[in-house]
Amino acid sequence: MIERPLTDWLPLTMKEVEKRGWDEVDIVLVSGDAYVDHPAFGTAVIGRIMESEGFRVAIIAQPNWKDDLRDFKKFGRPKYFFGVTAGCMDSMVNHYTANKRLRSNDSYTPGGEAGFRPDYATIVYSQILKTIYPDVPVLLGGIEASLRRVTHYDYWQDQLMPSILVDSGADMLVYGMGEQPLREILKLAQKGVPFSSMRNINQVAFMHNNQTELRDYNNWNTVALASHEECLEDKIKYAANFKIVEVESNKWQANRITQKVGDQVLVINPPFKTMDEAEIDKSFDLPYTRLPHPKYKKRGPIPAYDMIKFSVNMHRGCFGGCSFCTISAHQGKFIASRSEKSVLKEVDEITKHPEFKGYISDLGGPSANMYKMKGKDEAICARCQSPSCIHPVICSNLDTSHKPLTELYRKVDANPAIKKAFVGSGVRYDLLVDDFNKNNEDGNHDEYMEQLTTRHVSGRLKVAPEHTSDDTLRIMRKPSFKYFKTFKKKYDKIQEKHNLKQPLIPYFISSHPGCEEQDMANLAAETKDMGFQLEQVQDFTPTPMTVAEVIYYSGVHPYTLKPVRTAKTREEKQAQNRYFFWYKAEHKDWIRNRLNKLNRPDLVDRLLGSPKKENTGKPKQSGKFSGKKRR
User: Fold this and answer.
1) What region holds the Radical SAM core domain (predicted)?
2) Do 495 and 550 have their domain in common?
3) Which end of the chain is more exposed for a tag (fewer CB within 10 A), N or C?
Protein backbone atom coordinates (compact mmCIF):
# COMPACT_ATOMS: atom_id res chain seq x y z
CA MET A 1 0.00 0.00 0.00
CA ILE A 2 1.45 3.38 -1.05
CA GLU A 3 1.57 5.90 1.80
CA ARG A 4 -0.17 9.15 0.96
CA PRO A 5 1.44 12.43 2.03
CA LEU A 6 0.02 13.85 5.25
CA THR A 7 -0.90 17.05 3.40
CA ASP A 8 -3.60 15.11 1.49
CA TRP A 9 -5.73 15.48 4.64
CA LEU A 10 -6.86 18.70 6.26
CA PRO A 11 -4.48 19.40 9.16
CA LEU A 12 -5.15 18.10 12.67
CA THR A 13 -1.92 19.43 14.22
CA MET A 14 0.29 22.54 14.05
CA LYS A 15 3.01 20.38 12.53
CA GLU A 16 0.68 19.66 9.60
CA VAL A 17 -0.18 23.36 9.32
CA GLU A 18 3.55 24.19 9.12
CA LYS A 19 4.07 21.46 6.49
CA ARG A 20 1.71 23.44 4.27
CA GLY A 21 3.71 26.62 4.81
CA TRP A 22 0.84 28.47 6.47
CA ASP A 23 1.54 31.22 8.99
CA GLU A 24 -2.05 31.22 10.28
CA VAL A 25 -5.35 29.34 9.96
CA ASP A 26 -8.46 31.03 8.53
CA ILE A 27 -11.09 28.71 10.04
CA VAL A 28 -10.88 26.04 12.73
CA LEU A 29 -13.49 23.27 12.77
CA VAL A 30 -14.20 21.55 16.09
CA SER A 31 -15.92 18.16 15.87
CA GLY A 32 -17.12 15.46 18.25
CA ASP A 33 -16.20 12.79 15.68
CA ALA A 34 -12.80 11.51 14.66
CA TYR A 35 -11.72 13.04 11.34
CA VAL A 36 -12.55 10.78 8.41
CA ASP A 37 -11.94 12.47 5.06
CA HIS A 38 -14.98 11.02 3.33
CA PRO A 39 -18.18 12.59 1.90
CA ALA A 40 -20.33 10.67 4.43
CA PHE A 41 -18.77 12.67 7.29
CA GLY A 42 -19.99 16.25 7.69
CA THR A 43 -16.76 17.75 9.00
CA ALA A 44 -14.88 16.52 5.93
CA VAL A 45 -17.52 17.94 3.58
CA ILE A 46 -17.58 21.34 5.29
CA GLY A 47 -13.78 21.47 5.52
CA ARG A 48 -13.35 20.58 1.85
CA ILE A 49 -15.90 23.21 0.80
CA MET A 50 -14.02 25.85 2.77
CA GLU A 51 -10.76 24.69 1.20
CA SER A 52 -12.31 24.86 -2.28
CA GLU A 53 -13.27 28.49 -1.60
CA GLY A 54 -9.62 29.32 -0.84
CA PHE A 55 -9.67 29.16 2.97
CA ARG A 56 -6.96 27.60 5.14
CA VAL A 57 -8.81 25.13 7.33
CA ALA A 58 -7.68 23.06 10.32
CA ILE A 59 -9.66 20.54 12.37
CA ILE A 60 -9.80 19.89 16.11
CA ALA A 61 -11.30 16.40 16.28
CA GLN A 62 -12.62 15.08 19.61
CA PRO A 63 -10.79 17.61 21.79
CA ASN A 64 -10.23 16.93 25.47
CA TRP A 65 -12.66 19.18 27.32
CA LYS A 66 -11.59 18.07 30.81
CA ASP A 67 -7.92 19.18 31.02
CA ASP A 68 -6.21 22.54 30.51
CA LEU A 69 -8.04 22.84 27.14
CA ARG A 70 -4.81 22.83 25.14
CA ASP A 71 -6.58 21.09 22.24
CA PHE A 72 -8.78 24.15 21.75
CA LYS A 73 -5.74 26.43 21.72
CA LYS A 74 -3.38 24.49 19.45
CA PHE A 75 -4.08 26.46 16.28
CA GLY A 76 -4.42 29.79 18.05
CA ARG A 77 -6.92 32.40 16.94
CA PRO A 78 -8.38 31.73 13.48
CA LYS A 79 -8.56 34.65 11.08
CA TYR A 80 -12.33 34.34 10.51
CA PHE A 81 -14.25 32.01 12.84
CA PHE A 82 -14.62 28.66 14.59
CA GLY A 83 -17.06 26.07 13.21
CA VAL A 84 -18.53 23.69 15.82
CA THR A 85 -20.38 20.40 15.40
CA ALA A 86 -21.18 17.54 17.78
CA GLY A 87 -20.58 15.18 14.83
CA CYS A 88 -22.75 12.93 12.68
CA MET A 89 -25.15 12.19 15.56
CA ASP A 90 -26.79 14.14 18.34
CA SER A 91 -24.36 13.60 21.22
CA MET A 92 -27.12 12.42 23.57
CA VAL A 93 -28.43 9.82 21.09
CA ASN A 94 -24.80 8.81 20.61
CA HIS A 95 -24.28 8.39 24.37
CA TYR A 96 -27.52 6.91 25.70
CA THR A 97 -30.02 4.17 24.91
CA ALA A 98 -33.79 4.68 24.90
CA ASN A 99 -33.70 3.61 28.58
CA LYS A 100 -31.11 6.35 29.27
CA ARG A 101 -28.38 3.82 29.86
CA LEU A 102 -24.87 4.90 28.90
CA ARG A 103 -23.68 3.20 25.73
CA SER A 104 -20.41 1.30 25.98
CA ASN A 105 -19.13 2.26 22.52
CA ASP A 106 -18.98 5.12 20.02
CA SER A 107 -18.99 4.26 16.31
CA TYR A 108 -17.35 7.55 15.35
CA THR A 109 -14.25 7.04 17.52
CA PRO A 110 -11.17 4.90 16.78
CA GLY A 111 -11.51 1.48 18.36
CA GLY A 112 -15.20 2.23 18.98
CA GLU A 113 -14.21 3.68 22.36
CA ALA A 114 -16.75 5.69 24.32
CA GLY A 115 -15.96 8.81 26.32
CA PHE A 116 -14.24 10.96 23.70
CA ARG A 117 -16.97 13.61 23.48
CA PRO A 118 -19.05 15.35 26.17
CA ASP A 119 -22.81 15.29 26.60
CA TYR A 120 -24.29 18.24 24.67
CA ALA A 121 -21.01 18.50 22.79
CA THR A 122 -22.04 21.52 20.69
CA ILE A 123 -22.77 23.57 23.81
CA VAL A 124 -19.63 22.45 25.66
CA TYR A 125 -17.27 23.15 22.75
CA SER A 126 -18.83 26.52 21.99
CA GLN A 127 -18.74 27.69 25.62
CA ILE A 128 -15.06 26.75 25.89
CA LEU A 129 -14.17 28.64 22.69
CA LYS A 130 -16.13 31.69 23.83
CA THR A 131 -14.21 31.66 27.13
CA ILE A 132 -10.79 31.42 25.45
CA TYR A 133 -11.52 33.61 22.41
CA PRO A 134 -14.53 35.79 23.34
CA ASP A 135 -14.23 38.00 20.26
CA VAL A 136 -13.93 35.21 17.65
CA PRO A 137 -17.26 34.24 16.05
CA VAL A 138 -18.56 30.69 16.54
CA LEU A 139 -20.72 29.09 13.84
CA LEU A 140 -22.75 25.99 14.78
CA GLY A 141 -23.71 23.22 12.36
CA GLY A 142 -24.47 19.51 12.21
CA ILE A 143 -27.46 17.48 13.26
CA GLU A 144 -27.35 18.33 16.98
CA ALA A 145 -27.44 22.08 16.32
CA SER A 146 -29.93 21.73 13.48
CA LEU A 147 -32.52 19.79 15.49
CA ARG A 148 -32.09 21.97 18.58
CA ARG A 149 -32.34 25.33 16.84
CA VAL A 150 -35.63 26.28 18.52
CA THR A 151 -37.25 25.50 21.89
CA HIS A 152 -37.14 21.71 22.14
CA TYR A 153 -37.83 18.91 24.57
CA ASP A 154 -34.72 17.17 25.86
CA TYR A 155 -35.56 13.59 26.80
CA TRP A 156 -32.37 13.09 28.80
CA GLN A 157 -33.04 16.03 31.15
CA ASP A 158 -36.83 15.62 30.83
CA GLN A 159 -37.34 19.33 30.26
CA LEU A 160 -37.73 21.98 27.61
CA MET A 161 -34.53 23.69 26.51
CA PRO A 162 -34.24 26.95 24.55
CA SER A 163 -32.51 27.23 21.19
CA ILE A 164 -29.01 25.79 21.38
CA LEU A 165 -27.81 29.29 20.45
CA VAL A 166 -28.79 30.48 23.93
CA ASP A 167 -26.88 27.91 25.99
CA SER A 168 -23.89 27.73 23.64
CA GLY A 169 -23.33 31.47 23.29
CA ALA A 170 -22.55 30.93 19.59
CA ASP A 171 -22.99 33.71 17.05
CA MET A 172 -24.87 31.87 14.32
CA LEU A 173 -26.28 28.47 13.44
CA VAL A 174 -26.59 26.77 10.06
CA TYR A 175 -29.43 24.24 10.00
CA GLY A 176 -30.01 21.38 7.60
CA MET A 177 -27.47 20.41 4.97
CA GLY A 178 -25.11 23.35 5.22
CA GLU A 179 -23.37 23.73 1.85
CA GLN A 180 -25.53 26.54 0.45
CA PRO A 181 -25.60 28.86 3.48
CA LEU A 182 -21.94 28.11 4.18
CA ARG A 183 -20.83 29.34 0.77
CA GLU A 184 -22.74 32.60 1.36
CA ILE A 185 -21.16 33.02 4.81
CA LEU A 186 -17.67 32.42 3.39
CA LYS A 187 -18.13 35.04 0.66
CA LEU A 188 -19.22 37.65 3.17
CA ALA A 189 -16.53 36.74 5.70
CA GLN A 190 -13.87 37.13 3.02
CA LYS A 191 -15.19 40.66 2.34
CA GLY A 192 -14.82 41.51 6.03
CA VAL A 193 -18.55 41.45 6.85
CA PRO A 194 -19.00 40.63 10.57
CA PHE A 195 -21.34 37.84 11.65
CA SER A 196 -23.56 40.45 13.33
CA SER A 197 -24.35 41.87 9.88
CA MET A 198 -25.06 38.54 8.17
CA ARG A 199 -28.81 38.70 8.63
CA ASN A 200 -30.19 38.02 5.15
CA ILE A 201 -28.71 34.56 4.49
CA ASN A 202 -31.15 31.69 4.01
CA GLN A 203 -31.01 28.69 6.33
CA VAL A 204 -29.28 30.33 9.30
CA ALA A 205 -30.48 31.17 12.80
CA PHE A 206 -29.21 33.79 15.24
CA MET A 207 -30.16 35.67 18.39
CA HIS A 208 -31.29 39.27 18.03
CA ASN A 209 -31.37 41.86 20.82
CA ASN A 210 -35.01 42.60 21.58
CA GLN A 211 -34.20 46.26 22.24
CA THR A 212 -33.48 46.97 18.57
CA GLU A 213 -35.77 46.59 15.57
CA LEU A 214 -35.46 43.45 13.47
CA ARG A 215 -35.10 44.53 9.84
CA ASP A 216 -36.99 42.99 6.94
CA TYR A 217 -34.99 41.19 4.26
CA ASN A 218 -35.65 39.54 0.89
CA ASN A 219 -39.41 40.18 1.09
CA TRP A 220 -39.69 37.48 3.74
CA ASN A 221 -42.86 37.40 5.80
CA THR A 222 -42.31 36.70 9.50
CA VAL A 223 -44.20 34.21 11.66
CA ALA A 224 -43.85 34.55 15.43
CA LEU A 225 -43.87 31.46 17.66
CA ALA A 226 -45.03 31.35 21.26
CA SER A 227 -42.06 32.49 23.37
CA HIS A 228 -39.79 30.05 25.15
CA GLU A 229 -41.23 31.20 28.46
CA GLU A 230 -44.80 30.60 27.24
CA CYS A 231 -43.80 27.09 26.16
CA LEU A 232 -42.43 26.40 29.64
CA GLU A 233 -45.83 27.34 31.06
CA ASP A 234 -48.05 25.73 28.44
CA LYS A 235 -47.31 22.42 26.68
CA ILE A 236 -50.05 23.04 24.13
CA LYS A 237 -48.32 26.21 22.93
CA TYR A 238 -45.11 24.24 22.57
CA ALA A 239 -46.93 21.64 20.47
CA ALA A 240 -48.53 24.33 18.30
CA ASN A 241 -45.08 25.86 17.72
CA PHE A 242 -43.80 22.61 16.28
CA LYS A 243 -46.38 22.53 13.49
CA ILE A 244 -45.25 25.98 12.33
CA VAL A 245 -41.58 25.00 12.40
CA GLU A 246 -42.14 21.76 10.50
CA VAL A 247 -44.38 23.35 7.88
CA GLU A 248 -41.95 26.22 7.24
CA SER A 249 -38.98 23.83 7.08
CA ASN A 250 -40.65 21.91 4.23
CA LYS A 251 -41.67 24.84 2.04
CA TRP A 252 -39.78 26.24 -0.92
CA GLN A 253 -41.11 29.72 -0.26
CA ALA A 254 -41.05 29.74 3.50
CA ASN A 255 -41.49 32.45 6.09
CA ARG A 256 -38.92 33.72 8.55
CA ILE A 257 -39.60 32.44 12.09
CA THR A 258 -39.05 34.38 15.30
CA GLN A 259 -39.33 33.38 18.95
CA LYS A 260 -38.77 35.50 22.04
CA VAL A 261 -36.35 34.04 24.57
CA GLY A 262 -35.89 36.29 27.58
CA ASP A 263 -34.74 39.70 26.34
CA GLN A 264 -33.64 38.31 23.01
CA VAL A 265 -35.36 37.08 19.85
CA LEU A 266 -34.41 33.89 18.07
CA VAL A 267 -34.53 34.44 14.30
CA ILE A 268 -34.67 31.47 11.90
CA ASN A 269 -34.35 32.47 8.26
CA PRO A 270 -36.17 30.41 5.57
CA PRO A 271 -34.32 27.42 4.07
CA PHE A 272 -32.71 27.35 0.67
CA LYS A 273 -34.46 25.47 -2.09
CA THR A 274 -33.11 21.90 -2.31
CA MET A 275 -29.77 21.62 -4.11
CA ASP A 276 -29.90 20.78 -7.79
CA GLU A 277 -27.82 18.03 -9.38
CA ALA A 278 -24.81 20.23 -10.16
CA GLU A 279 -24.71 21.62 -6.61
CA ILE A 280 -24.85 18.25 -4.86
CA ASP A 281 -22.30 16.78 -7.30
CA LYS A 282 -19.95 19.60 -6.35
CA SER A 283 -20.01 18.47 -2.71
CA PHE A 284 -19.37 14.81 -3.51
CA ASP A 285 -16.68 15.49 -6.12
CA LEU A 286 -14.29 17.33 -3.78
CA PRO A 287 -10.78 15.79 -3.36
CA TYR A 288 -11.47 13.49 -0.39
CA THR A 289 -8.86 10.87 0.49
CA ARG A 290 -11.83 8.68 1.53
CA LEU A 291 -9.72 7.53 4.49
CA PRO A 292 -9.44 8.27 8.22
CA HIS A 293 -6.61 10.59 9.18
CA PRO A 294 -3.33 8.59 9.60
CA LYS A 295 -2.99 9.63 13.25
CA TYR A 296 -5.64 7.01 14.17
CA LYS A 297 -3.73 4.01 12.77
CA LYS A 298 -2.60 2.67 16.14
CA ARG A 299 -5.92 3.30 17.89
CA GLY A 300 -7.98 0.80 15.96
CA PRO A 301 -10.64 1.02 13.24
CA ILE A 302 -13.46 3.57 13.27
CA PRO A 303 -16.68 1.46 13.13
CA ALA A 304 -18.78 4.07 11.29
CA TYR A 305 -16.11 4.34 8.61
CA ASP A 306 -15.73 0.58 8.27
CA MET A 307 -19.48 0.39 7.73
CA ILE A 308 -19.57 2.90 4.85
CA LYS A 309 -16.11 2.86 3.25
CA PHE A 310 -17.35 0.78 0.31
CA SER A 311 -20.79 2.39 0.09
CA VAL A 312 -22.17 5.15 -2.13
CA ASN A 313 -24.73 7.73 -1.02
CA MET A 314 -26.69 8.58 -4.16
CA HIS A 315 -29.12 11.15 -2.79
CA ARG A 316 -30.19 13.15 0.25
CA GLY A 317 -33.55 13.90 1.78
CA CYS A 318 -36.65 11.82 2.43
CA PHE A 319 -40.27 12.62 1.57
CA GLY A 320 -41.64 10.03 4.02
CA GLY A 321 -42.00 12.50 6.89
CA CYS A 322 -42.17 9.73 9.50
CA SER A 323 -43.17 11.06 12.92
CA PHE A 324 -40.21 9.54 14.79
CA CYS A 325 -37.51 10.28 12.20
CA THR A 326 -35.09 13.22 12.01
CA ILE A 327 -33.97 12.71 8.40
CA SER A 328 -36.48 15.05 6.76
CA ALA A 329 -36.10 17.53 9.64
CA HIS A 330 -32.38 17.80 8.88
CA GLN A 331 -31.98 16.85 5.20
CA GLY A 332 -35.39 18.07 4.02
CA LYS A 333 -38.31 16.27 2.38
CA PHE A 334 -37.27 17.11 -1.19
CA ILE A 335 -34.77 14.72 -2.75
CA ALA A 336 -31.38 16.04 -3.90
CA SER A 337 -30.02 13.43 -6.31
CA ARG A 338 -26.51 13.17 -7.69
CA SER A 339 -25.88 12.72 -11.38
CA GLU A 340 -25.13 9.28 -12.78
CA LYS A 341 -21.70 10.56 -13.74
CA SER A 342 -20.90 11.59 -10.15
CA VAL A 343 -22.10 8.28 -8.69
CA LEU A 344 -20.17 6.20 -11.22
CA LYS A 345 -17.06 8.31 -10.64
CA GLU A 346 -17.30 7.53 -6.91
CA VAL A 347 -17.71 3.83 -7.67
CA ASP A 348 -14.48 4.02 -9.68
CA GLU A 349 -12.76 5.73 -6.74
CA ILE A 350 -13.89 2.95 -4.39
CA THR A 351 -12.45 0.27 -6.67
CA LYS A 352 -9.00 1.88 -6.20
CA HIS A 353 -9.17 1.53 -2.41
CA PRO A 354 -6.32 -0.78 -1.27
CA GLU A 355 -8.71 -3.00 0.71
CA PHE A 356 -11.45 -3.23 -1.94
CA LYS A 357 -12.36 -6.83 -2.84
CA GLY A 358 -15.02 -6.15 -5.44
CA TYR A 359 -18.10 -5.65 -3.24
CA ILE A 360 -20.02 -2.38 -2.82
CA SER A 361 -21.79 -2.60 0.55
CA ASP A 362 -24.53 -0.08 -0.24
CA LEU A 363 -25.89 1.81 -3.21
CA GLY A 364 -28.30 3.86 -1.17
CA GLY A 365 -29.40 6.94 0.67
CA PRO A 366 -31.66 7.81 3.62
CA SER A 367 -34.23 5.57 1.90
CA ALA A 368 -32.61 3.37 -0.71
CA ASN A 369 -35.18 3.85 -3.47
CA MET A 370 -35.96 7.58 -3.69
CA TYR A 371 -33.22 8.44 -6.19
CA LYS A 372 -34.31 11.05 -8.78
CA MET A 373 -37.86 11.18 -7.40
CA LYS A 374 -39.47 14.62 -7.40
CA GLY A 375 -42.61 16.52 -8.31
CA LYS A 376 -43.80 16.29 -11.91
CA ASP A 377 -44.94 19.92 -11.78
CA GLU A 378 -42.59 21.95 -9.59
CA ALA A 379 -45.13 24.77 -9.38
CA ILE A 380 -47.31 22.44 -7.28
CA CYS A 381 -44.33 21.56 -5.03
CA ALA A 382 -43.62 25.26 -4.57
CA ARG A 383 -47.08 25.72 -3.02
CA CYS A 384 -47.02 22.52 -0.95
CA GLN A 385 -47.02 22.60 2.85
CA SER A 386 -47.40 18.90 3.57
CA PRO A 387 -44.66 17.31 5.70
CA SER A 388 -44.92 14.09 3.68
CA CYS A 389 -45.35 13.36 -0.02
CA ILE A 390 -46.63 9.82 0.64
CA HIS A 391 -48.84 10.08 3.73
CA PRO A 392 -51.74 9.52 4.09
CA VAL A 393 -51.61 8.75 0.35
CA ILE A 394 -48.97 9.15 -2.33
CA CYS A 395 -49.19 12.55 -3.98
CA SER A 396 -50.39 12.29 -7.58
CA ASN A 397 -47.75 14.90 -8.49
CA LEU A 398 -44.88 12.73 -7.20
CA ASP A 399 -42.83 10.96 -9.87
CA THR A 400 -42.07 7.61 -8.25
CA SER A 401 -40.41 6.01 -11.26
CA HIS A 402 -37.67 3.57 -10.28
CA LYS A 403 -36.29 3.45 -13.83
CA PRO A 404 -33.36 5.87 -13.27
CA LEU A 405 -32.32 3.84 -10.21
CA THR A 406 -32.65 0.50 -12.00
CA GLU A 407 -30.54 1.79 -14.88
CA LEU A 408 -27.89 3.12 -12.48
CA TYR A 409 -27.72 -0.25 -10.69
CA ARG A 410 -27.07 -1.89 -14.05
CA LYS A 411 -24.33 0.57 -14.94
CA VAL A 412 -22.60 -0.07 -11.62
CA ASP A 413 -22.91 -3.82 -12.25
CA ALA A 414 -21.26 -3.33 -15.64
CA ASN A 415 -18.07 -2.02 -14.01
CA PRO A 416 -15.54 -4.87 -14.45
CA ALA A 417 -14.07 -4.25 -10.97
CA ILE A 418 -17.45 -4.80 -9.29
CA LYS A 419 -18.37 -8.36 -8.33
CA LYS A 420 -21.54 -7.35 -6.48
CA ALA A 421 -23.13 -4.04 -5.54
CA PHE A 422 -25.54 -4.45 -2.65
CA VAL A 423 -28.31 -2.23 -1.32
CA GLY A 424 -27.74 -1.99 2.43
CA SER A 425 -30.01 0.99 3.12
CA GLY A 426 -33.64 0.35 4.02
CA VAL A 427 -35.98 0.10 1.04
CA ARG A 428 -39.21 2.09 1.16
CA TYR A 429 -41.40 -0.90 0.33
CA ASP A 430 -44.70 1.00 0.09
CA LEU A 431 -43.46 2.74 -3.07
CA LEU A 432 -43.34 -0.71 -4.67
CA VAL A 433 -46.88 -1.80 -3.78
CA ASP A 434 -49.31 -0.98 -6.59
CA ASP A 435 -52.33 -0.98 -4.26
CA PHE A 436 -50.72 1.89 -2.36
CA ASN A 437 -48.68 3.59 -5.09
CA LYS A 438 -50.99 4.29 -8.03
CA ASN A 439 -48.16 6.00 -9.97
CA ASN A 440 -46.68 2.77 -11.41
CA GLU A 441 -47.73 3.63 -14.94
CA ASP A 442 -45.22 1.59 -16.96
CA GLY A 443 -44.51 -1.29 -14.59
CA ASN A 444 -41.07 0.08 -13.70
CA HIS A 445 -41.58 -0.86 -10.02
CA ASP A 446 -41.72 -4.54 -10.96
CA GLU A 447 -38.58 -4.18 -13.07
CA TYR A 448 -36.82 -2.53 -10.12
CA MET A 449 -37.91 -5.23 -7.69
CA GLU A 450 -36.64 -7.95 -10.01
CA GLN A 451 -33.28 -6.17 -10.36
CA LEU A 452 -33.02 -5.48 -6.63
CA THR A 453 -33.99 -8.97 -5.50
CA THR A 454 -31.84 -10.91 -7.94
CA ARG A 455 -28.71 -8.71 -7.99
CA HIS A 456 -28.45 -6.43 -4.97
CA VAL A 457 -29.61 -8.20 -1.80
CA SER A 458 -26.78 -9.25 0.49
CA GLY A 459 -28.47 -12.24 2.11
CA ARG A 460 -31.41 -10.26 3.49
CA LEU A 461 -33.41 -7.13 2.67
CA LYS A 462 -34.21 -4.42 5.23
CA VAL A 463 -37.65 -2.81 5.23
CA ALA A 464 -39.48 -0.79 7.88
CA PRO A 465 -43.18 -1.47 8.42
CA GLU A 466 -42.58 -0.17 12.00
CA HIS A 467 -45.92 -1.45 13.37
CA THR A 468 -49.03 -3.48 12.61
CA SER A 469 -51.69 -1.28 14.26
CA ASP A 470 -53.33 1.10 11.81
CA ASP A 471 -53.98 3.65 14.58
CA THR A 472 -50.32 3.68 15.58
CA LEU A 473 -49.19 3.72 11.96
CA ARG A 474 -51.32 6.80 11.26
CA ILE A 475 -49.52 8.65 14.04
CA MET A 476 -46.20 7.37 12.67
CA ARG A 477 -47.20 8.63 9.19
CA LYS A 478 -46.71 5.13 7.84
CA PRO A 479 -49.03 3.07 5.59
CA SER A 480 -51.24 0.23 6.76
CA PHE A 481 -49.50 -3.06 7.55
CA LYS A 482 -51.60 -4.76 4.88
CA TYR A 483 -49.30 -3.20 2.27
CA PHE A 484 -46.29 -4.84 3.88
CA LYS A 485 -48.06 -8.18 3.51
CA THR A 486 -48.67 -7.44 -0.16
CA PHE A 487 -45.03 -6.48 -0.64
CA LYS A 488 -43.84 -9.66 1.06
CA LYS A 489 -45.93 -11.82 -1.28
CA LYS A 490 -44.47 -10.00 -4.27
CA TYR A 491 -40.93 -10.33 -2.92
CA ASP A 492 -41.36 -14.01 -2.06
CA LYS A 493 -42.72 -14.71 -5.54
CA ILE A 494 -39.59 -13.25 -7.17
CA GLN A 495 -37.40 -15.26 -4.80
CA GLU A 496 -39.26 -18.46 -5.60
CA LYS A 497 -38.94 -17.75 -9.32
CA HIS A 498 -35.15 -17.44 -9.03
CA ASN A 499 -34.68 -20.08 -6.30
CA LEU A 500 -33.36 -17.55 -3.77
CA LYS A 501 -33.44 -17.57 0.03
CA GLN A 502 -33.05 -13.95 1.17
CA PRO A 503 -35.27 -13.19 4.17
CA LEU A 504 -36.92 -9.85 4.71
CA ILE A 505 -35.73 -8.06 7.84
CA PRO A 506 -38.61 -5.92 9.11
CA TYR A 507 -37.97 -3.02 11.50
CA PHE A 508 -40.46 -2.39 14.31
CA ILE A 509 -40.65 0.17 17.11
CA SER A 510 -42.12 -0.36 20.57
CA SER A 511 -43.55 2.32 22.89
CA HIS A 512 -44.25 4.80 20.09
CA PRO A 513 -46.86 7.46 20.88
CA GLY A 514 -50.33 6.07 20.25
CA CYS A 515 -49.25 2.48 20.84
CA GLU A 516 -51.04 0.55 23.57
CA GLU A 517 -49.75 -2.65 25.17
CA GLN A 518 -52.35 -4.73 23.35
CA ASP A 519 -51.12 -3.27 20.06
CA MET A 520 -47.69 -4.72 20.78
CA ALA A 521 -49.18 -8.12 21.60
CA ASN A 522 -51.04 -7.98 18.29
CA LEU A 523 -47.82 -7.00 16.50
CA ALA A 524 -46.01 -9.99 18.00
CA ALA A 525 -48.85 -12.32 17.00
CA GLU A 526 -49.11 -10.99 13.44
CA THR A 527 -45.37 -11.21 12.81
CA LYS A 528 -45.29 -14.70 14.33
CA ASP A 529 -48.09 -15.77 11.99
CA MET A 530 -45.99 -14.46 9.07
CA GLY A 531 -43.02 -16.56 10.17
CA PHE A 532 -40.86 -13.86 11.78
CA GLN A 533 -38.94 -14.39 14.99
CA LEU A 534 -37.68 -10.93 15.93
CA GLU A 535 -34.44 -10.93 17.85
CA GLN A 536 -33.81 -7.23 18.46
CA VAL A 537 -36.23 -4.35 18.36
CA GLN A 538 -36.00 -0.60 18.65
CA ASP A 539 -37.54 1.10 21.65
CA PHE A 540 -38.82 4.58 20.84
CA THR A 541 -36.51 7.48 21.72
CA PRO A 542 -38.05 10.98 21.56
CA THR A 543 -35.47 12.99 19.63
CA PRO A 544 -35.77 16.77 19.09
CA MET A 545 -37.62 18.16 16.07
CA THR A 546 -39.94 15.19 15.53
CA VAL A 547 -43.73 14.89 15.78
CA ALA A 548 -43.35 11.90 18.10
CA GLU A 549 -41.11 13.85 20.50
CA VAL A 550 -43.71 16.62 20.71
CA ILE A 551 -46.48 14.09 21.44
CA TYR A 552 -44.32 12.36 24.07
CA TYR A 553 -43.72 15.62 25.95
CA SER A 554 -46.99 17.50 25.44
CA GLY A 555 -49.46 14.60 25.31
CA VAL A 556 -51.12 16.02 22.18
CA HIS A 557 -50.58 15.74 18.44
CA PRO A 558 -49.12 19.05 17.21
CA TYR A 559 -51.38 19.14 14.12
CA THR A 560 -54.69 18.45 15.87
CA LEU A 561 -53.82 19.34 19.50
CA LYS A 562 -55.85 16.27 20.48
CA PRO A 563 -54.58 13.93 23.23
CA VAL A 564 -52.43 10.93 22.30
CA ARG A 565 -51.39 8.45 24.95
CA THR A 566 -47.74 7.38 25.18
CA ALA A 567 -45.96 4.74 27.26
CA LYS A 568 -43.50 6.66 29.45
CA THR A 569 -42.50 4.68 32.52
CA ARG A 570 -39.79 2.05 32.34
CA GLU A 571 -42.35 -0.58 33.33
CA GLU A 572 -44.72 0.38 30.50
CA LYS A 573 -41.90 0.43 27.96
CA GLN A 574 -40.51 -2.92 29.09
CA ALA A 575 -43.99 -4.44 28.99
CA GLN A 576 -44.42 -3.41 25.34
CA ASN A 577 -40.95 -4.64 24.43
CA ARG A 578 -41.35 -8.10 25.99
CA TYR A 579 -44.01 -9.18 23.52
CA PHE A 580 -41.39 -9.30 20.77
CA PHE A 581 -39.71 -12.13 22.64
CA TRP A 582 -42.72 -14.45 23.04
CA TYR A 583 -40.47 -17.38 22.04
CA LYS A 584 -38.15 -16.96 25.06
CA ALA A 585 -38.98 -19.22 28.01
CA GLU A 586 -38.35 -16.50 30.60
CA HIS A 587 -41.12 -14.31 29.15
CA LYS A 588 -43.86 -16.86 28.52
CA ASP A 589 -45.47 -16.90 31.98
CA TRP A 590 -45.41 -13.11 32.14
CA ILE A 591 -47.05 -12.80 28.70
CA ARG A 592 -49.73 -15.36 29.55
CA ASN A 593 -50.60 -13.69 32.88
CA ARG A 594 -50.53 -10.22 31.37
CA LEU A 595 -52.80 -11.05 28.43
CA ASN A 596 -55.24 -12.89 30.68
CA LYS A 597 -55.47 -9.74 32.83
CA LEU A 598 -56.13 -7.77 29.66
CA ASN A 599 -58.86 -10.30 28.84
CA ARG A 600 -57.12 -11.36 25.61
CA PRO A 601 -57.03 -15.19 25.70
CA ASP A 602 -57.10 -15.10 21.89
CA LEU A 603 -53.65 -13.49 21.87
CA VAL A 604 -52.38 -15.98 24.47
CA ASP A 605 -53.33 -18.77 22.12
CA ARG A 606 -51.80 -17.10 19.05
CA LEU A 607 -48.52 -16.26 20.77
CA LEU A 608 -48.02 -19.21 23.09
CA GLY A 609 -50.52 -21.83 22.04
CA SER A 610 -51.97 -24.15 24.65
CA PRO A 611 -49.44 -25.18 27.35
CA LYS A 612 -48.94 -28.60 25.73
CA LYS A 613 -48.18 -27.09 22.32
CA GLU A 614 -45.79 -24.37 23.39
CA ASN A 615 -42.56 -26.11 22.37
CA THR A 616 -43.72 -27.88 19.22
CA GLY A 617 -41.62 -25.86 16.86
CA LYS A 618 -40.23 -22.57 15.66
CA PRO A 619 -41.69 -20.23 13.08
CA LYS A 620 -40.87 -20.94 9.47
CA GLN A 621 -38.60 -17.94 9.04
CA SER A 622 -36.13 -16.28 11.40
CA GLY A 623 -36.46 -12.58 10.72
CA LYS A 624 -33.45 -11.26 12.54
CA PHE A 625 -33.46 -7.55 13.10
CA SER A 626 -30.56 -5.47 14.26
CA GLY A 627 -32.31 -2.66 16.08
CA LYS A 628 -29.60 -0.07 15.40
CA LYS A 629 -31.20 2.43 13.07
CA ARG A 630 -29.57 5.77 12.39
CA ARG A 631 -32.25 8.37 12.30
Assistant:
1) 304-584
2) no
3) N
